[in-house]
Amino acid sequence: MSAFVAGFALSRLLPHLSFVIPVTLGLQATAMLMALGIVYLHFPGLICTAYTLAQQRVAGAGLVRAAPVAWVFLWGWAVRRLAVARSLP
What pTM did the predictor assign? Predict the structure, then answer.
């Protein structure tokens, strides 16, 4: 429950924070997506018993593919936010 409350509070605060903080959090999230995907792909055993080893490999490949996509979206958001900030009087 506390993680849900913290996530809700963070989602309400992010638009009002300095530009650096959301970008830093986004870069950390994309790095963690990539790291978790690599662990899922290359760990020889099951990390979680809720799914099979083949499903773990598929999830790892999906996370490795999702990380660059998330980075591109973060980059686009950052460029757009900077452009809007510079156009304000």
Answer: 0.76
